[in-house]
Design a protein that fits this description.
Blueprint: H1 11-19, H2 25-38, E1 43-51, E2 54-61, H3 68-74, H4 95-103, E3 106-112, E4 117-123, H5 124-130, E5 136-139, H6 142-151, E6 158-164, H7 174-188, H8 190-194, E7 198-201, E8 204-205, E9 219-231, E10 237-248, H9 253-259, E11 268-273, E12 276-282, E13 296-302, H10 307-310, H11 323-348, E14 349-350, H12 359-367, H13 380-383, E15 416-421, E16 430-435, E17 438-444, H14 448-455, H15 461-481, H16 487-505
Parallel strand pairs: 1-7, 11-13, 15-17
Antiparallel strand pairs: 1-2, 2-6, 3-4, 3-6, 4-5, 7-8, 9-10, 10-13, 11-12, 14-15, 16-17
Helix pairs in contact: 1-5, 2-4
Length: about 500
C-alpha cells in the first residue's frame, strides 16, 4: 500500500469548524487559566471590558512565561510542549488555540521568559484569506513592551493573552457574563485558590466556591481511596489512586435550598482532574436523578494519568469512565447511596394524613392497568439509586412485596402506591418514581392543591379518586419520557405548573 505525503486540511473550512466545537465560553476562559497555573503562576488577572464596541478579554499571569520555541508551539493545534500528566492541567496541547478561537477572531499573546518580550498573534480572517494556518511570531513592539511592563512588571516573567473581536460570546451583557464567570472560576479552581493561588476578575478577588458546602454544615459521609490498574491503548498498564468523597448537604428549608440551588441539577458527582474540576453534577450512569437525592453530592479525584480510562475529551468538560472504573465506583458508593436516600426520604414521607387512604384509587388503577400506558419496570437496585445490582446479585425484584413504613397502603397489593410527603410549601404538587413494577407517587401535603382537593374534600370519594387519577396520569407520563437529557426540562414544567397552581389556589 502506498501513501502520498500531502494531506493538508483546508484551513479556512477547518477554522470555521474549530470555532464551533460546542466550547462553553466560561470553560474556554478556564482552559486559558489552566495554562497560567501550569506555568507556575501565583496570580492570574482577568479583565473583561467593552472597548470601542468590542468585548476584549485579557488574561494576565505572573508565571514563568515562554521562550520562543515554546511560544511557537503554544498557538499550534496539538502543540508539542512537554506535559506532566500527573500534575499539568492541559492535556492535548490545544487549549489555548481552541479556547481562543471559540471566543474571538484574534488571539494576541505577549510573554517574557528570559528578558525579551515576545509576541505571537493568530487571526481567523487572515487564516481564511490565505487559506492556510499562519501566525505572527517575533519580538514585541516598544508600545507592547510598555504595556507588558505595566500589566505584569518591568522585570518579571509572565504572559498576557488578549482576545479581541469576541464575536462568539453567548451573553453580551458583560456584567452578567462576569458574574457567571466569577462563580465558574471559584468552583473550577477552588483547591488552587484554597492553596494560596489568586484569581482576580476586573480587580476583584475570586473566592473559592465549594459545591459540597463543607463550611456550611454538610455531613462528611465518607472519604475513601481505591487503587485501580488501567491499560492504555498506546502504553503500559498504569496503577493509580482514585478518591471519592461523599457528603450530605444540610437541609436549609425550601427557600434556602432554592437560593443555594440545591436540586436535581446539582446532585451527583463533581469530577476533579489534578484537583481541577472538569465536570459537575454527573450521574455516571450509577444512579437515577430524584428529589430524594438532592442533598447527595460527591467529589471524584483522579490524576491525568487516568484521562483515557476516565474518557476525558480535549475540552475537559465531559467524562465517560470505562466499565472497570464505573463498576469500582458503583461498588463503593451504591450501598451508601441507598442509605442516604432512605434517610432523606424518611424525612420527607409522613403519616400526617393517615386518616385519608388512597386504596380505592389504587384498586381502580390496578384494575385497568392492562389499558394504561405505564413506565417500564425497573430493577430494585436501580430504584434505590443505582444502575447495577449489588455485588452482581441476580436476585429477583421483590420491591413490590415490601411492607410499608409510613402508614400508607401496602405496595404488594397493586402496581401503584400513593404516599403523603412533606415536599415544602414551594415544592412540587407531587413526586414520582418507578420502583420495580411499582409506581410510587408522593403527594405534597404542604401544597394548596392537596389541601383543596384532598384534605378539604376527603368525604367526596369521586372527586378524590379523580384527582388521584389526574396525578397518576401526569406521573406516568413523566416517568415514561424522563431521561438524562430532558429531566431538567420536565422538572421546569412541573415547577411552573406547581407555582401557577399555588398562586391560583392561595
Amino acid at each position: 500500500m502506498f501513501f502520498t505525503t500531502g494531506n493538508t486540511p483546508n484551513a479556512a473550512k477547518l477554522m470555521d469548524s474549530l470555532r464551533f466545537l460546542g466550547y462553553n465560553n466560561y470553560s474556554a476562559i478556564c482552559d486559558i487559566v489552566d495554562n497560567s497555573f501550569d506555568a507556575e503562576a501565583k496570580n492570574v488577572k482577568i479583565f473583561i471590558n467593552q472597548v470601542g464596541g468590542d468585548a476584549v478579554i485579557s488574561i494576565i499571569d505572573d508565571g514563568i512565561g515562554m521562550d520562543e520555541p515554546t511560544l511557537d508551539q503554544a498557538l499550534k493545534l496539538g502543540s508539542l510542549t512537554d506535559r506532566n500528566s500527573a500534575a499539568d492541567l492541559g492535556r492535548y496541547g490545544m487549549g489555548l488555540v481552541t479556547a481562543g478561537l471559540s471566543l474571538a477572531k484574534r488571539t494576541n499573546v505577549l510573554t517574557r521568559n528570559n528578558g525579551s518580550v515576545l509576541k505571537s498573534v493568530t487571526d481567523v480572517d487572515e487564516v481564511k484569506r490565505r487559506n492556510e494556518f499562519c501566525k505572527f511570531l517575533g519580538k514585541a513592539e516598544n508600545d507592547e513592551v510598555a504595556t507588558f511592563n505595566k500589566l505584569v512588571s518591568p522585570k518579571s516573567t509572565g504572559t498576557i493573552v488578549e482576545l479581541t473581536e469576541c464575536d462568539n460570546l453567548r451573553n453580551t451583557n458583560l456584567s452578567i457574563f462576569r458574574s457567571t464567570l466569577r462563580g465558574k472560576l471559584g468552583q473550577t479552581f477552588r483547591y488552587f485558590l484554597l492553596s494560596g493561588k489568586k484569581i482576580f476578575l476586573n480587580g476583584e478577588l475570586v473566592e473559592p466556591r465549594d459545591p459540597l458546602m463543607l463550611e456550611e454544615g454538610s455531613e462528611l459521609y465518607s472519604d475513601e481511596r481505591f487503587e485501580i490498574a488501567v491499560k492504555h491503548s498506546d502504553g503500559p498498564e498504569v496503577t493509580d489512586q482514585i478518591r471519592i468523597r461523599i457528603v450530605v448537604l444540610p437541609d436549609f428549608g425550601a427557600d434556602g435550598n432554592k437560593q443555594r440551588k440545591i436540586g436535581m441539577r446539582g446532585q451527583g458527582f463533581y469530577i476533579l482532574r489534578n484537583n481541577r474540576e472538569i465536570a459537575e453534577g454527573q450521574t455516571l450512569g450509577i444512579f437515577t436523578r430524584h428529589n430524594d437525592l438532592n442533598r447527595f453530592r460527591a467529589e471524584i479525584f483522579f490524576s491525568g494519568a487516568f484521562d483515557e480510562a476516565m474518557g476525558v475529551n480535549f475540552t475537559k468538560r465531559e467524562v465517560d469512565p470505562n466499565q472497570a472504573i464505573t463498576d469500582k465506583i458503583n461498588d463503593l458508593v451504591q450501598g451508601q447511596l441507598r442509605t442516604i436516600r432512605s434517610r432523606i426520604k424518611s424525612e420527607r414521607v409522613t403519616a400526617e394524613d393517615s386518616e385519608i387512604t388512597h386504596d380505592e384509587s389504587e384498586k381502580l388503577i390496578n384494575a385497568k392497568s392492562h389499558l394504561l400506558i405505564r413506565p417500564k419496570a425497573k430493577r430494585a437496585a436501580a430504584s434505590n439509586g443505582g444502575a447495577h445490582s449489588n455485588g452482581g446479585s441476580k436476585s429477583k425484584d421483590r420491591t413490590h412485596a415490601e411492607k410499608p413504613t409510613d402508614g400508607s397502603s401496602a405496595p404488594g397489593k397493586y402496581n401503584v402506591q400513593f404516599q403523603a410527603a412533606k415536599l415544602g410549601k414551594n415544592g412540587p404538587i407531587y413526586e414520582a418514581e418507578q420502583v420495580g413494577r411499582l409506581t410510587v407517587i408522593q403527594w405534597n401535603i404542604e401544597h394548596p392543591f392537596y389541601e383543596r382537593f384532598i384534605l378539604e374534600r376527603k368525604d367526596d370519594r369521586t372527586l378524590r379518586t379523580s384527582v388521584d387519577f389526574l396525578i397518576y396520569s401526569m406521573a406516568t407520563a413523566e416517568l415514561t419520557t424522563l431521561n438524562e437529557e430532558n429531566y431538567e426540562m420536565i422538572q421546569n414544567i412541573k415547577t411552573v405548573m406547581s407555582s401557577n397552581m399555588r398562586s391560583l389556589l392561595s
